[in-house]
Amino acid sequence: MAGGGNVILCTGYMGDQLESFLGKRRKTLALYYSKETEPLGTAGAVRNAIDMTKSDTLMVFNGDSYCDINPQDLLAWHFEKNSSCTLALVKMPDVNRYGSVNFDVDYQVTSFSEKTPDKKSGWINVGIYCINRQIIAALPGNRNISLEKDLFPTLIGKQFFAFPQEAKFIDIGTPSSYQEAETFFVNVAHYPGRANKKGLANA
Fold first, then answer.
1. Rounded CA gap, 78 and 62, in Å?
2. Residue 45 placed within a domain
3. What percent of the chain lies above the pLDDT cut of 70?
4. How confident is residue 116, by pLDDT bands cut at 50, 70 and 90?
5. CA 164 to CA 150: how far, in whole Å?
6. What tens digit of pLDDT does each residue of 34-84 get?
7. Which of 106, 171, 183, 198 has its CB surrounded by the most CB atoms within 10 Å?
8. CA–CA separation, 25 vs 29, rounded Å?
9. 147 and 128 Cβ atoms separated by less than 8 Å
């Protein structure tokens, strides 16, 4: 993340090894660890860490993917739209592995499309979000809950916005994509940047 601040890492299996490796600080970032004794899902993990946070707005990053966006741009867009939750999106020529996110001309999220065997382009969720704290705090504790499947569909129509970007993205959740990561990060270093002043891509 650009700049400094506090980062909470939600850890589960072998989390102690991760903590031992990363320690309590990386450059300008202070690191804290929220440990799960059993899998809590993407939303349950954030809910488990809520008492370690003070901000009214939480920025959440998936740990198995990377997208070359500026987090400060996402945060500014979240506040400008008075959003309850904002999803960073990128356009992919084939969304069958991910499913896609649909939004209207005002960038409000309207629906989610499931994964499909048909090859088609669309906007995918890259696993970077701004979420108002009260939304996470209202979730039940110690439950396995998914952001993508359980929470996000309930937010449609409730100041729920997309932040579409022209940016490089990689999901390292499969062996093949993990092998691509080294080349990907070399190429990202030479990527020319985003579409316009706000970083918003044309739908």
1. 18
2. no
3. 83
4. confident
5. 22
6. 999 999 999 999 999 999 999 999 999 998 898 999 999 999 999 999 999
7. 171
8. 6
9. no
Structurally, how many domains does the chain consist of? Answer: 1
DSSP state at residue 202: P
Is 159 inside any structural domain? Answer: yes
Distance between CA atoms of residues 20 and 2, nearest Å = 24
Distances (CA, A) of 201 to 69, 91, 119, 161: 12, 9, 21, 14
Q: b/e string for 64-94 if b means 16 or more Cβ within 10 A?
A: ebbbbbebebbeebbeebebbbbbbbbbbee
Q: How confident is the model at residue 199 (pLDDT cuts 50, 70, 90)?
A: low
Q: Span 7-25, mean pLDDT?
A: 95
Q: Which helix (DSSP H) or strand (DSSP E) does residue 157 occupy?
A: none
* Helix, coil or strand: residue 5: strand
Residue 198 tokens, joined: 């706000």
Give the structural domain span for 123: 56-188
